[in-house]
Design brief:
Its EC number is 5.1.3.1. It catalyses: D-ribulose 5-phosphate = D-xylulose 5-phosphate. This protein has helices at residues 15-24, 47-56, 70-77, 95-104, 150-164, 181-186, 196-199, 204-211, and strands at 2-5, 30-35, 61-66, 84-88, 108-113, 131-135, 169-173, 191-194. It has 213 residues and is α/β, with parallel strands linked by helices. It has an eight-stranded parallel beta sheet. Strand 2 (30-35), helix 2 and strand 3 form a beta-alpha-beta unit. The longest helix has 15 residues, at 150-164. The protein binds 5-O-phosphono-D-xylulose. 5-O-phosphono-D-xylulose is lined by residues 6, 8-9, 31, 33, 64, 137, 139-144, 173-176, 193-197.
Length: 213
């Protein structure tokens, strides 16, 4: 299992210290939540802060857009050369075109599904994706409880992925901890995003190791 701590749960007064700490503690990606105050009722960080994160991160960035105007934000963050940019299927009229645009910028394209969105909604996009992110909380805030229905959903998606594009990774985000990690692994999940679980642990190495099963 790959682990991508969400910097949303970091101490923003000590962002450099916290980003370095998760990288040194063995995370695989640094997950960055970009929220615009419209698609979700919260507002987070823009390219100035994300470039400061990129400057001190020794692991690749995984940028999750929770915004209304995806194309505008892809153009804003592409120069930072993240490994992944993911956007919400619920907010995109032309997902296939945006996938092609992200790939043409040298970045791996990923799509995010809210808890209620059917896995079948990405069936005809799967062949062109590097990752699908399943939200296991309603997007907008860290520290929420895990929504259990993501487990059967991940199993269904994993079966589709194995048939259509075995190289496409499945990521789950929200309420992930040492209690649900085994269920996620069994369901075929490859990457977990964990915010409060990792950042609330004094020993981040131990927290990350407990998710790498
Ligand atoms: O995208 C989001 C929330 O919208 C997540 O990345 C959370 O920030 C994860 O935090 P925890 O649920 O692990 O505390």
């Amino acid at each position: 299992m790959y682990v991508a701590p969400s910097v949303l749960s970091a101490n923003f007064g000590n962002l450099e210290r916290d980003v370095k700490a998760i990288c040194e503690a063995g995370c695989d990606f640094v997950h960055v939540d970009v929220m615009d105050g419209h698609f979700v009722p919260n507002l987070t960080i823009g390219p100035v802060v994300v470039s400061a994160i990129a400057a001190c991160a020794t692991k690749p960035l995984d940028i999750h857009l929770m915004v209304e105007n995806n194309t505008f934000f892809v153009d804003l963050f592409a120069p930072l050369k993240p490994e992944y940019i993911s956007f919400h299927i619920e907010e995109e009229k032309h997902p296939h075109r945006l996938i092609q645009k992200i790939r043409s910028l040298g970045i791996k394209p990923a799509i995010v599904l809210n808890p209620h969105t059917l896995p079948e909604s990405v069936e005809y996009l799967l062949a062109d994706l590097d990752m699908i992110l399943l939200m296991s909380v309603n997007p907008g805030f860290g520290g929420q409880s895990f929504i259990d229905s993501v487990i059967p959903k991940a199993k269904k998606l994993s079966a589709m992925r194995d048939k259509i594009n075995p190289n496409c990774l499945i990521e789950v985000d929200g309420g992930v901890n040492d209690k649900n990690i085994a269920l996620l692994k069994d369901a075929g999940v490859d990457i977990v995003v964990a915010g409060s679980y990792v950042f609330n642990h004094f020993d981040k190495k131990e927290a990350i190791a407990s998710l790498k099963i």
